[in-house]
Write a structure and sequence with these properties.
The complex is a heterodimer of chains A (354) and B (82).
Chain A: H1 2-13, H2 17-25, E1 27-30, H3 35-58, H4 68-77, H5 82-109, H6 118-140, H7 145-158, H8 165-173, H9 180-212, H10 218-223, E2 226-229, H11 230-255, H12 281-289, E3 293-294, E4 297-298, H13 299-315, H14 317-320, H15 322-325, H16 331-353
Antiparallel strand pairs in A: 1-2, 3-4
Chain B: H1 2-22, H2 32-69
The chains are: A mainly alpha (354), B mainly alpha (82).
Chain lengths: 354, 82
């Protein structure tokens, strides 16, 4: 009875009829690549989980070089379920990164970026960049020697960019070297700047998905396909998948809690065999392919310029792929997409094994 | 004697805590009973998830059946019953 009264109270003030109508009218295509639609939903769900667990951890984490490492030890050893939330946040981040890449590569290979969805592609790629920066900034918050070394390498690489390199590196580090200033800066990025940008961009991205509807691959468009309503059919399937994802993250968190390394010392030499997180391995491995000097120029700068060029090309892909925009087949861009995916996968594996 | 024993215990505890601080931090409980409780909770969690999955599956089947029969569509010219 109370619920009905509350519903009436709300209905008198706000007309939910349009929203209900919109939810009822939203259709989702059914075809052999439809599983890719769920990767976006999983990514969104994992973002929500990260926000929730991140908020809980932020109540107890101390973003100070003297106390950061100790506060993590206290979260893990003294706080009720602290170990679980930290581990959950860690594995949530890993799975989030996996699904962001699957979502990106799925979009790339099915050419869902084509006209009129260019802005969906642009916002998605910016979100990927933000997610990676989330990973990097969160990694430094551990304030152990591995994290310090990895961030030194990652931010040091940005310094090799011509013209803006030194400014970029100083901006990221909050000084010349990775110190306590960097920790505070990365904390601000991790808990304030990046979440705000993410919320805005996810909102924009989801709004565009509603506006354009689900993209259908060209090959499927020609064959023909059916539709199912988003509400309730697809939403129920989404819920089922989210439950499995939730269980998987919880299981990983219980069975494989991340270790706590030795406290970072900015003055200590960098330990040997330091590797960045897996999603940086393809970049790390690419940098290793280049010699120190090429024709009198800095090899690292050339490598970074090539990587930046490849990322920019990927970003602007919808503008170059004119054939797909016209609804024609473009095998060249299919092969370019496959090359990007293959390069990422192979270099990540090589980087992991070497 | 009591003072010596107390001193020994305190110094042992201090050494142990220092060793703990220098060594590897346990990120998961080492107490067998606590481990059992955690694994048991995880098993219950999965049972709950499996139950919800079954309910969702049943609900979805029912919705699809209704949609197949066309019962979910609104009839525009349906007569009002007073």
């Amino acid at each position: 009875m109370n619920f009905l009264r509350l519903k009436d109270w709300f209905s008198e003030r706000y007309d939910l009829g349009d929203l209900k109508k919109m939810a009822g009218e939203k259709l989702v295509p059914v075809h052999r690549y439809e599983f890719l639609y769920y990767t976006g939903g999983i990514t969104l769900f994992l973002f929500v989980l990260q926000f929730v667990t991140g908020m809980i951890l932020s109540f107890y984490y101390v973003p100070h070089p003297e106390h950061a490492h100790k506060s993590i030890i206290e979260i893990v050893t003294k706080l009720n379920l602290g170990w679980f939330f930290r581990s959950f946040h860690h594995w949530g981040a890993q799975l989030l990164m996996v699904f962001v890449f699957i979502h990106l590569f799925g979009t790339l290979l099915t050419k869902s970026y084509r006209k009129p969805r260019e802005f969906l592609w642009f916002s998605g790629l910016i979100l990927l960049g933000i997610t990676i920066f989330f990973g990097l900034s969160g990694y430094l918050l551990l304030w152990d020697e591995r994290a310090l070394a990895a961030v030194k390498v990652a931010t040091g690489g940005s310094g090799a960019f011509p013209v803006i390199g030194h400014f970029l590196m100083a901006f990221l580090r909050g000084g010349i070297d990775v110190t306590g200033e960097t920790l505070i800066r990365f904390y601000a990025f991790h808990v304030a700047v990046l979440p705000l940008l993410t919320l805005f961009l996810i909102g924009f991205h989801v709004l565009l998905v509603q506006y354009h509807g689900m993209s259908v691959p060209l090959s499927v468009e020609k064959e023909g396909y059916t539709h199912v309503p988003f509400f309730p059919n697809v939403l129920y399937k989404d819920l089922a998948i989210w439950l499995v994802v939730l269980g998987t993250v919880a299981t990983l968190a219980v069975f494989l809690p991340p270790e706590i390394g030795v406290k970072a010392d900015p003055l200590a030499p960098t330990p040997e065999n330091i590797k960045p997180e897996w999603y940086f391995l393809f970049l790390f491995q690419t940098l290793k392919l280049f010699p120190g000097e090429i024709l009198g120029l800095n090899g690292e700068t050339i490598a970074l310029m090539l990587i930046a060029g490849a990322i920019l090309f990927l970003f602007l892909l919808p503008l170059f792929d004119k054939k797909t925009s016209r609804g024609e087949k473009s095998p060249l861009f299919t092969w370019i997409g496959i090359a990007y995916v293959a390069y990422f996968v192979i270099m990540t594996i090589v980087g992991y094994l070497s | 004697m009591k003072k010596v024993i107390a001193g020994l215990i305190i110094s042992l505890a201090a050494t142990a805590s220092l060793a703990w601080a220098d060594g590897k931090v346990e990120v998961f409980t080492t107490v067998r009973y606590d481990q059992f409780i955690i694994y048991q909770s995880l098993a219950f969690f999965w049972v709950g998830i499996a139950g919800l999955l079954v309910i969702i599956r049943m609900k979805l089947k029912e919705i699809e059946r209704i949609q197949k029969l066309g019962l979910d569509k609104k009839e525009e010219d349906a007569p009002f019953l007073e």
